[in-house]
Every structure is written in structure tokens, then in C-alpha cells.
Design a protein that fits this description.
Layout (H helix, E strand, L loop, with lengths): L14 E4 L5 H7 L2 H7 L4 H7 L2 E6 L5 E8 L12 H9 L9 E9 L4 H15 L5 E7 L14 E2 L10 E7 L8 E4 L5 H11 L2 H6 L3 H7 L5 E8 L2 E9 L4 H7 L13 H16 L1
């Protein structure tokens, strides 16, 4: 698949999850001298506590076989975390990447026998977990990008300004390399063929319960209280969400404990103020 490194021979299956502090020793055991050269001074305990997102890959036995830490700044002592956008623009110029839509890879390590699996799963999970991130960035010592190992094919150097003088190369991994960019729009009747094939492959229950053409009817019956949205990739509908504003709140209140959500109703502000005042008087009595 796209984004998988060149070394695609598989040797073990892996699963990924959020990193935990107990993973520290397993992560440290994976770090090589090349990793220290690539990422600088490494304090795994600090990364586990401060990273914006930490992802651990484990094998069938639960042993740590990979780890990635993403941060909101480059993580280089030469770069002030609060000033990195200015530093970044001084190297690559004006690009559509910044604080709000990017993350920095602070560390990536993996077991040699699971390179492809760890790289693919970790990066896919990172983008799925951080939907606002359009690209993961990486600052490497100049000239080191050609030996980036398992993620070499995923990260590409960004062009630098002619006048830029920096000991680092800045690389970027775009979201689209691992997750397709979705376009959301109102559903149309012509989406029926795409959506019907998806529903038929996923479940026979819907057709049995609602009839063969219920998707078409759902799309055609849209009004102010009923809406249908589709997710589209390459002009093809790949998902459907149906929304209904006509909800029996009483039935939901009877079936579920909704105290944490105020019973799904909006209280009268005056009544809320009166209740708060009554509680305050009771507390001081």
C-alpha cells in the first residue's frame, strides 16, 4: 500500500496502541546509535510524558517492537519551541503548514523484522488520531534523510530557500500518503450504486428490515428535518450518514441515564439561575 517502505518483506504481525510509561524499557531497547544521530539526545521517559501523541507497536506476545512520538515543535535544542514557525519559514519559505495543521516526529524506532508493519500502522494511526494534521514534519541533521530507514519512502525533503542556512533538512509526510482525503457533501440520488454496494457487503440486515431501495428513499426524502451526507473519495461515495431532527426525547430519557447531558434538553435560563440561587442559600444555611 502507499506509504509502505521499500523493505516490504513481512516477518511479524503488529498491533498499535497509545504509548504507556511502562513501555519505556522496551522502547529504549530498540534505540540504536543511528537513531541517536538522527533524533539527537533522547529521553524516552520525558517523551512518554510530554509528547502530543505517543504510539507503541507490539507483537503477538505484547512485546514492544516500535514506537513513535509526535510533538507540537521540532524538539531540537537549537530551535525555540515557541518560535519554530518563524524558523520553519526561514528555511522553506511560505508554505501551507504551520502550528494548526502539522505535527513533528520527535522519535521513531522499530524492530528490524517489523519495519514495514510498524511504519505503516504507526503513521496511519497518527493521522487517524490527529484529524487536524495535514502533514507530519521532521527535522534531520543535514544529509541524513537518505538513510532514514523504515520511513524513507514516506518522508520527502521540502525545498529550501536559496538563502537559508541551517544544519537541518526539513522533511514532510503528507496525510494523503496514508489516509485518503475525504470530501463531505449532501447525498445525491446518483450515489445509490456506490452506497448500495457498500451496504450489501457490510450487512444483510438493513435490506431485510427496510427493503432493497431504502438507501434511495433515504436520500430522496431529505427535508429540513432529515438530511443525508456522504463521504467522497475520487468522486466516489464511500460512506453515508443519515441525520434526523425529529427525535422522541422522552423515549430516550426513559431508556438511558442522561443526567450528564441534562436529559438532552435545554433548560430555561431563568429556572437554572433560580435553582443555583436556591442551592447557594442551602449551602450557607
Amino acid at each position: 500500500s502507499r506509504g509502505t517502505p521499500r523493505d516490504t518483506q513481512t516477518h511479524m504481525s503488529v498491533a498499535v496502541r497509545r504509548a504507556e510509561f511502562e513501555d519505556r524499557l522496551g522502547i529504549e531497547a530498540l534505540i540504536t546509535d543511528e537513531d541517536r544521530t538522527r533524533f539527537g539526545a533522547l529521553d524516552v521517559a520525558t517523551l512518554l510524558e510530554t509528547a502530543t501523541l505517543g504510539i507503541t507497536a507490539v507483537d503477538e506476545r505484547g512485546q514492544v517492537v516500535g514506537y513513535a512520538a509526535l510533538s507540537d515543535a521540532p524538539g531540537r535544542p537549537e530551535v525555540d519551541p515557541a518560535q519554530w514557525p518563524e524558523w520553519f519559514r526561514g528555511i522553506v519559505g511560505e508554505v501551507q503548514l504551520g502550528v494548526t495543521n502539522s505535527a513533528w516526529l520527535a522519535l521513531f524506532v522499530c524492530h528490524p523484522a517489523a519495519r514495514a508493519e510498524v511504519a505503516e500502522n504507526v503513521m496511519r494511526t497518527a493521522f487517524a488520531t490527529l484529524p487536524e494534521v495535514d502533514a507530519v514534519l521532521l527535522a534531520l541533521p543535514a544529509g541524513r534523510e537518505s538513510s532514514f530507514g523504515p520511513l524513507e519512502d514516506a518522508f520527502a525533503p521540502l525545498p529550501t530557500l536559496d538563502e537559508a542556512s541551517t544544519p537541518f533538512d526539513v522533511l514532510a509526510c503528507p496525510r494523503a500518503l496514508f489516509l485518503a482525503n475525504l470530501k463531505l457533501r449532501p447525498a445525491r440520488v446518483e450515489d445509490y450504486d456506490d452506497l448500495a454496494a457498500i451496504f450489501e457487503s457490510e450487512s444483510e440486515v438493513l435490506a431485510e428490515r427496510y427493503g432493497e431501495f431504502f438507501i434511495a428513499q433515504l436520500i430522496e426524502s431529505q427535508d429540513e428535518s432529515h438530511k443525508a451526507l456522504v463521504a467522497e473519495v475520487d468522486e466516489r461515495a464511500i460512506g453515508l450518514m443519515a441525520l434526523n431532527a425529529e427525535v422522541d426525547i422522552g423515549e430516550l430519557q426513559a431508556a438511558f441515564d442522561l443526567d450528564a447531558f441534562d436529559g438532552l434538553v435545554t433548560a430555561d435560563p431563568d429556572l437554572l439561575a433560580a435553582a443555583d440561587a436556591a442551592l447557594a442559600r442551602a449551602d450557607t444555611a
